[in-house]
Amino acid sequence: xxxxxxxxxxxxxxxxxxxxxxxxxxxxxxxxxxxxxxxxxxxxxxxxxxxxxxxxxxxxxxxxxxxxxxxxxxxxxxxxxxxxxxxxxxxxxxxxxxxxxxxxxxxxxxxxxxxxxxxxxxxxxxxxxxxxxxxxxxxxxxxxxxxxxxxxxxxxxxxxxxxxxxxxxxxxxxxxxxxxxxxxxxxxxxxxxxxxxxxxxxxxxxxxxxxxxxxxxxxxxxxxxxxxxxxxxxxxxxxxxxxxxxxxxxxxxxxxxxxxxxxxxxxxxxxxxxxxxxxx
Length: 280
Known about the structure:
With 280 residues, the protein is an alpha+beta fold. The protein folds into two domains: 11-41; 63-208 and 251-278, no CATH class. Helix content is 38%, strand content 16%. The chain has eight helices and ten strands. The strands form three sheets. Strands 2-1-3-4 form a four-stranded mixed β-sheet. Helix 4 packs antiparallel against helix 5. The radius of gyration is 30 Å and the shape is globular.
């Protein structure tokens, strides 16, 4: 049977409708792909932005607070004669008070081994004369490079690792101690491949142990924290027996720690008022 309606039979009408439908679907698919591509780009950009810290610019701590916190790293008898370094976020560390007993103290704001610039790392550290000579210069240079704005955090780490390999930065030449007796600290509790920071009450003593491992001090499996243990973050990049800044960590006793925290209630409140994340 043949149907004729103005020169168009049923077969040709169906064909025309099919062509229009296919063209419409093709155009729709193109638009969908374009829209999807746009959202993929937008989502990727958002993810990239979201993964960055909201603010990596360091602020200047109040001088009195930074000084008192830095000195809290030392035992009381060493504080009057210690040299105090303070941080100018636009330049780096500077001597705020010249001491006489060989010990230095400062507040660390850049943990260079982790290769990221954060504004929520705040830890008081002190060194004896040997640590001041060999280890503190690394912190000074890391702070200065960050302050310059000319380097990424990864570049800072790579430069420091390269200088260690070239012997520009050297290991301590003798046994020595770093006191970290402050009542609170905020830093990384793990190795440089883990980027969570924690606020901790962990006053402790650190004895220089270049090129050693936990196996060397009998702490097996590697790094149990139920006694003296060894930490050496840069070993991840230099090798376990090639990293010069290892420390044997001896935590303060439980009673002594409680006493130390209780005796620093005013300082703890000042730190918490300064930054809420310093409240443990």
